[in-house]
Write a structure and sequence with these properties.
Elements lengths: L1 E4 L2 E4 H12 L20 E7 L3 H15 L3 E7 L2 H14 L6 E5 H9 L22 H6 L10 E13 H7 L3 H5 L2 H15 L7 H8 L23 H16 L10 H8 L5 E5 L2 H9 L7 E4 L8 E8 L7 H12 L2 H11 L2 E2 L22 H9 L11 H18 L3 H16 L2
Parallel strand pairs: 3-4, 3-5
Antiparallel strand pairs: 1-2, 5-9, 6-7, 6-8, 6-9, 6-10
Amino acid sequence: MKSSILGVAIPAASLLAALTLAFGVAAAPAAVPPATVLPALAPATITVASFPDLDRAVKTALPLWEKLYPQVKVKLVSLQIDDHHNSMTTALAAGARLPDVMAIDFRYVGSFAESKGMEDLLQPPYGAGQYRAQFVPFTFVQATSSRGTLGAMPADLGPGTLFYRKDLMDKAGIKESDLTASWESYIAAGKKLKAATGTYLLAGASDLADIYIRANLKDGEGIYFGDKGQVLVDSPRFVKAFELAKAARVAGIDARTVAWTGEWAEGFKRDKVASQMMGSWLSGHLAKWLAPASAGQWRAANLPAGALASYGGSFYGIPKKASNKAQAWEFIKFMTVNKDIQLHSLKEIGAFPALKAAYADPMMDEPQAYFGGQKTRLLARDTAAKIPVIRVDKFDAVARDIVNMELESVLAQNKDIKTALADAKALITHRARR
């Protein structure tokens, strides 16, 4: 088997050496799928617009990209996640200042997939449909518009995971089963932890609602909208989510911080917060940024009551007005269809692969020193296999903001839960013109 750079055939062994040199690990020649010959790309500088921590996946993969395509330079532009998506939305509306490759977070992929400003990657010259079977099924569905177009390729996903500090739980006599038996037992454990150690179980009570509304959805059901576009936020799922958040606040087990703020991060660094429920990708944030000093003390577990949830995920798309579409498509395939790059992102930032071929790799079975030798990747892999196909909607981001606003009214102003959700439904219906 041979591969080539700029259309000049080179032995697969040479490509293997390039992979090894770039990442310091052995990698198979199949890391450059699907063809045995790489396309000859014209010299260009492509702009990749991304956000933390996904931008670091690009940064760490660039050494290999540059070996394969030295004539195609990559300019990485990164903004904080909400600023990035707001900027991209504005650029698409104006049809100007657009990147060649656009990173898209799960929370926004519905809106961007529906945009007529993105290339349909199912169409020539892309032909992304040939890769569909290689990915976890729900990822392609999430990036597919109501018109049947594919607005982006999946890069990673976020199997819902409970991370907790075992050392702090041990001090309070709390077992993992106390945290995971039920949502109520999780809150009860928080009371016990606070009484014994003064540590908060949660950074914010809203985190509890945020994970619960994503849990145990049926195939084809969305978080905020049903399969016919109906608004779901007054359903029993949302009522229960708000009740759990309110119970956590009343119990005094949350630090009342907002995710992704400096105060939120300090809670982990200063041992003030003992658990967090998010996607499995949080493992990378904990180890590299949020709590590197508490290495060996964290553990990962299934969500309470055996709940299954998808929390996050990333995609890459190409704007129709991008300047370098051929180079952009090769870069997207490099980041998504390339098993070794997918595994490298897992190792570097904890981004769990959307590509199924990565799941059989021995890396999945490696003990993680940060988690006390626990094989956390196996936990994420097993959860990923069970997550249903979740419907996305172009108004998901709007609905999320409205629901969060009403939840804050419940937590801070003691607004009646059913009234809050009825108000949320009315406002979402108006904004989405449903």
